[in-house]
Backbone:
């Protein structure tokens, strides 16, 4: 078929260009890809095959930048190695086999000569074991494709000098029973299956912290990954899909039948949370807003857990996978996805509240400390396809805005005490949940060491009501308030009076990212209008006397975009606020 021939030629051209450009050298020590941040401007840069090699540098930022350049280039090199081996297998052109084999020789020769890093597990090719685990699948597939080309001695040298040392390093992880540990064990299993090492495969699959144990622990009764983010749910699916695909290729498909079923559950669980605009909530520290149909995730599973969307993507997207495993016929009609319903997800400390066109998502607790932010008791809110409040996620983890702003309470819709959100992650407790009333009341008894928070949420066909009660158990007077972030424009109205001389915002790093702050006094009942595109909503706040109101511009993703932050507080040891949002006709 002409289109396949043209596509294969484009693959050859890309690999040819990289063979001429490839910079891999023994003196290059790989770092963390997220550190590819310009040391001068502080901006995240986009790596391309043409990106020039940075100087070694003398500052920590410069060295991290160079190491990230190496890591990103190494990722790209490994992808081209696999592509070259595939071209050889398809066309018989030994030029590509020779180059791919030389690259495996290079990694085998240098794997144990690079310094071993232990910041996350053990790694020599990168800064952390997770990156090696991800890269290992393309490397081990390359070895499989070249088995008939390479001599027996050469093939075994890859085993003894690269893959087995890598498997031993991957046995170490700083995050057991997590997505990281799953990736580590999946990579070990892939290596074990390639070399028919039954003891190593049993370690990875059946060990006390192996794949089965991790899945039993981390796949919750709500069919969602325990770390509680949609992005990491997909990241786990990526790892599982690579494991199951490799198992099928190596003749071990039946061994991972349970994991195949678990992957499908993870894939479909997100439908319980969808907003009407087909976006998803974004709890914890995912780096981008989440969409319902994460096409790569459905595509990853199209061969062994096919969905309409996975088959549709595979049939339209020319890849090696779809060339080798032609997708089944796509159903004629896309499935109709029903609206989300009011549901409580206790193993995740999350809930969806739905009535009419109004829908709220609440994240009131955390099952463990992985990827936690100061967002416990936060909510996201949509009316139909209009988002009134959504979590934009965070930025690259190496940027200061990640740790100093997007992880902090000021970036979420939460109570703040002296400007700070919850400082002790905890599961939280449910005081009331009513599916018929679309109502939830929760408590965080240790929101801070001496502060408890009770928060109630209710959705009706007319709108959304949220109640917040804050109590300082030590009796110390503190600033007690609530922050509401939205991309809608906010216009203060009845019950507010401009007051430029009131106390400034709390002196916390996160609020230092706010700008253009307008300060007002608020009566016990005050109002604001939310202008969300063509729709307008009334926000009504009832609370203590002597409220201070601050309306600021706040960072949004992607930077440098902005949204609006509305913060209101009082001084005291207790405070109760009620916020109601309803649509204006």
Residues:
């Amino acid at each position: 078929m002409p289109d396949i021939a043209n596509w294969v030629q484009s693959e050859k051209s890309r690999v040819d260009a990289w063979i001429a450009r490839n910079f891999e050298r023994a003196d290059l020590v790989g770092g963390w890809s997220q550190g590819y941040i310009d040391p001068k401007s502080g901006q995240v840069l986009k790596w391309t095959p043409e990106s020039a090699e940075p100087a070694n540098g003398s500052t920590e930022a410069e060295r991290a930048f160079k190491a990230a350049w190496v890591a990103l280039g190494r990722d790209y090199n490994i992808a081209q190695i696999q592509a070259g081996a595939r071209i050889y297998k398809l066309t018989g052109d030994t030029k590509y086999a020779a180059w791919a084999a030389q690259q495996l020789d290079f990694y085998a020769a240098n794997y144990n000569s690079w310094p071993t890093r232990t910041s996350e597990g053990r790694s020599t090719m990168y800064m952390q074991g997770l990156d090696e685990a991800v890269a290992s699948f393309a490397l081990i597939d390359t070895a499989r494709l070249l088995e008939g080309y390479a001599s027996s001695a050469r093939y075994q040298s890859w085993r003894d000098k690269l893959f087995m040392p890598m498997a031993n390093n991957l046995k170490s992880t700083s995050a057991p029973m997590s997505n990281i540990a799953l990736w580590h064990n999946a990579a070990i299993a892939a290596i074990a299956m390639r070399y028919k090492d039954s003891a190593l495969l049993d370690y990875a699959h059946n060990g006390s912290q192996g794949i089965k144990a991790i899945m039993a622990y981390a796949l919750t009764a709500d069919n969602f990954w325990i770390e509680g983010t949609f992005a990491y749910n997909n990241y786990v699916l990526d790892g599982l899909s690579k494991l199951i695909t490799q198992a099928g290729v190596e003749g071990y498909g039946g061994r991972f039948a349970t994991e195949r079923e678990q992957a499908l559950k993870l894939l479909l669980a997100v439908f319980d949370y969808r907003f009407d605009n087909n976006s998803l909530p974004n709890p914890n520290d995912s780096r981008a807003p989440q969409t319902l149909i994460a096409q790569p995730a459905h595509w990853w599973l199209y061969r062994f857990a096919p969905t309409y969307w996975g088959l549709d993507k595979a049939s339209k997207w020319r890849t090696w996978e779809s060339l080798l495993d032609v997708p089944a016929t796509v159903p004629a009609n896309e499935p109709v996805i029903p609206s989300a319903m009011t549901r409580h997800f206790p193993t995740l400390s999350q809930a969806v509240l739905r009535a009419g066109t109004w829908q709220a998502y609440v994240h009131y607790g955390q099952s463990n400390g992985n990827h936690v932010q100061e967002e416990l008791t936060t909510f996201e809110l949509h009316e139909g396809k209009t988002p009134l409040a959504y979590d934009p996620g965070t930025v690259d983890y190496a940027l200061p805005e990640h740790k100093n702003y997007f992880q902090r309470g000021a970036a979420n819709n939460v109570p703040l005490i002296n400007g700070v959100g919850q400082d002790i992650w905890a599961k939280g407790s449910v005081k009331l949940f009513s599916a018929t009333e679309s109502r939830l009341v929760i408590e965080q008894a240790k929101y801070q060491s001496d502060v408890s928070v009770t928060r109630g949420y209710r959705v009706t066909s007319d709108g959304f009501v949220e109640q917040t009660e804050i109590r300082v158990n030590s009796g110390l007077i503190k600033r007690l308030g609530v922050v509401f972030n939205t991309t809608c424009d906010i216009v203060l109205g009845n019950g507010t009076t401009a007051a430029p001389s009131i106390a400034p915002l709390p002196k916390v790093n996160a609020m230092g990212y706010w700008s253009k702050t307008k300060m007002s006094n608020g009566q016990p009942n005050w109002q604001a209008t939310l202008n969300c595109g063509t729709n307008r909503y009334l926000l009504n706040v009832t609370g203590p006397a002597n409220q201070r109101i601050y309306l600021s511009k706040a960072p949004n993703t992607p930077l440098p975009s902005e949204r609006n932050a509305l913060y209101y507080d009082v001084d005291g040891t207790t405070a109760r606020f009620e916020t109601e949002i309803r649509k204006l006709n």
Notes: The two ends are 58 Å apart (CA to CA). The chain is about 35% helix and 25% strand. The domain at 2-254 is CATH 1.50.10.100 (Glycosyltransferase). The first strand starts at residue 279 and ends at 280.
